[in-house]
């Protein structure tokens, strides 16, 4: 398949690229080689080969959910630098932009 300079410029625009004039000819040659390879792949007989979405038989590697008891609140809050009752206290950051405006 023949790729023209106009085709390269069109693809350049579609891809939002700016090729240097000296780079257009090598790009044209690369694109022609890619299309030639695709023609070779299209010539391969795949009759009877089922379509695949993955080359390996991959399965879900996550474990099933299990209900377990939660940590005691006192143990969790032991790591908190600042706690109030059974909650973490954190610096206020939501609404700061509205308050400053």
Overview of this protein structure:
The chain has 101 residues and is mostly helical. It contains four helices and two strands; from the N terminus they run αααββα. The protein has helices at residues 5-14, 21-42, 73-77, 96-100; strands at residues 83-84, 87-88. Strands 1-2 form a two-stranded antiparallel ribbon. Helix 1 (5-14) crosses helix 2 (21-42). It is elongated. It starts with a helix and ends with a helix. The mean pLDDT is 88.
Number of helices: 4
Q: Which descriptor suits the 3D outline?
A: elongated
**Radius of gyration, in angstroms, nearest whole number:** 30 Å
The run of helices and strands is HHHEEH
Strand order of the largest sheet: 1-2
Strand count, sense and barrel status of the largest sheet are:
2 strands, antiparallel
Q: Give the mean pLDDT.
A: 88
Number of DSSP strand runs? 2
Helix content: 40-55%
End-to-end Cα distance: 62 Å
- The percent range for strand residues is under 5%
Helix/strand structural class: mainly alpha
Model regions low in confidence, pLDDT < 50 over at least 5 residues: none
Brief rundown of the structure:
With 101 residues, this protein is mainly alpha-helical.
From the structure above, extract its key features:
two-stranded antiparallel ribbon; 101 residues; mainly alpha; elongated
Describe the SSE topology.
Layout: H1 5-14, H2 21-42, H3 73-77, E1 83-84, E2 87-88, H4 96-100
Antiparallel strand pairs: 1-2
